[in-house]
Design goal:
Length: about 200
């Protein structure tokens, strides 16, 4: 009797193991290698195309600032890498992944731009200013971001020349100058510093 029970238990156990093996074989996506999602190495080893939610740690840029984190920001197929860098000594978070460009100028000559899709500054040029200008993002957002813009002081105690608002889309950020006193749209002033900070997905 005991021998029969032992044989029966063995058969049941074998069937359970066989069922688990068949389940694993039928659903391999549940057992993907973690290395495909989380990788590390130097920037030179950063894979070309990427697929969300891949993450890559680059250990060599910038020097002395610890690991740099690259996220796969898939706005197309394949996706592209966007860098987030944290300096552990000063806790500064910086954006990367491309430099935006001025596509509608704020002035007839000399406009310049610095920064990333996340944040940056436009310096209005030295020709004839306009009341609107547009910065096109290096990479499109999935949804229009939420952006904070302001007219920075060029020096301590400098005059507050005018206000600035902005209209964000998935591909660009359009700035518009206005007079503080009236709220009426007015031209920018040469040398003004127009900053932005955008967040979104």
């Amino acid at each position: 009797m005991r021998r029969s029970i032992a044989i029966l238990v063995g058969v049941v156990a074998a069937l359970v193991l066989l069922g688990l093996a068949m389940l694993i074989k039928a659903q391999p996506q549940l057992y993907q290698a973690p290395a495909l999602l989380l990788q590390n190495g130097t920037v030179a080893q950063l894979p070309g195309p990427c697929v969300r939610p891949q993450v890559f740690f680059a250990s060599d840029v910038p020097v002395g600032s610890g690991q740099n984190l690259y996220f796969c920001d898939m706005t197309g197929t394949p996706g592209h890498w966007t860098q987030m860098a944290l300096n552990p000594r000063v806790n500064h978070l910086t954006g990367g992944g491309g430099i935006p460009v001025i596509t509608v100028h704020f002035n007839t000559s000399g406009d310049s731009i610095a920064g990333s899709d996340l944040d940056g500054v436009v310096t209005v040029g030295s020709g004839t200013a306009t009341s609107r200008g547009t910065v096109s993002f290096a990479h499109s957002w999935t949804n229009a971001p939420v952006c904070l813009v302001q007219n920075l002081l060029t020096a301590p105690g400098a005059a507050k020349l005018q206000g600035v608002t902005a209209i964000p889309t998935t591909t660009a950020l359009t700035f518009e100058g206005f007079a503080f006193a009236t709220g009426v749209e007015t031209n920018f002033t040469n040398g003004e510093l127009l900053s932005w900070h955008c967040v979104g997905s």
